[in-house]
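Researcher: Sequence recovery benchmark, item below. Answer with residues only.
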């Protein structure tokens, strides 16, 4: 059975997958974009590895029928493990990490799959009495659309107070568990699978 047929059957009566929940682009969209692949844990020209829990992040970009979005461009950006972005407008007093720039660009393969290696970002203050939970920003450029979302980590204690996550009626499409430890990976590493379903691909 083809992937598309399996996806249509999994979609129930409509025969379509639920689209991934949209989220905001800003406030810390990168001003400069280092040219690099899918490993955010190293910075060219610098020794050492980014601080924090290693995360192997992978998934597929699909349309609602389950067909892969081939050669889609994915940009991701995130805070470091202390909860600070490499962005001049981030006034969080948490330290910067010289081994972490927090931005990557990858493309999906013929199956719509992508892979990234990063660290789990820290939560950070977002106003009086409010903490943004740990999350990673995604911007996807498919064949027919541009899509922006954020991926959150299951079990974060700040979810209920976060207005952006709570604005979603499909939180199950953007809140993902960390799986680990995983054989063949570093003992402290976790794995996260995050499929992104676009309206039209």
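Model:
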């Amino acid at each position: 059975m083809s992937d598309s047929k399996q996806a249509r059957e999994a979609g129930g009566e409509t025969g379509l997958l639920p689209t991934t929940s949209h989220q905001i682009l800003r406030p810390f969209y990168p001003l400069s974009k280092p040219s690099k692949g899918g490993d955010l844990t190293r910075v060219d020209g610098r020794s050492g590895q980014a601080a924090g829990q290693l995360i192997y992040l992978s998934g597929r970009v699909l349309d609602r029928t389950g067909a892969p979005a081939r050669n889609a461009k994915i940009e991701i950006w995130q805070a470091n493990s202390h909860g600070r972005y490499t962005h001049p407008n981030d006034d969080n007093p948490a330290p910067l990490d010289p081994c972490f720039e927090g931005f990557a660009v990858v493309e999906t393969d013929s199956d719509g799959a992508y892979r990234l290696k990063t660290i789990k970002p820290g939560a950070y203050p977002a106003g009086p009495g409010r903490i943004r939970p740990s999350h990673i920003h995604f911007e996807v450029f498919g064949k027919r659309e541009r899509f922006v979302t954020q991926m959150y980590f299951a079990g974060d204690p700040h979810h209920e107070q976060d207005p952006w996550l709570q604005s979603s009626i499909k939180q199950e499409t953007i809140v993902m568990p960390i799986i680990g430890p995983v054989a063949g990976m570093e003992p402290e590493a976790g794995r996260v699978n995050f499929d992104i379903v676009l309206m039209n691909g």
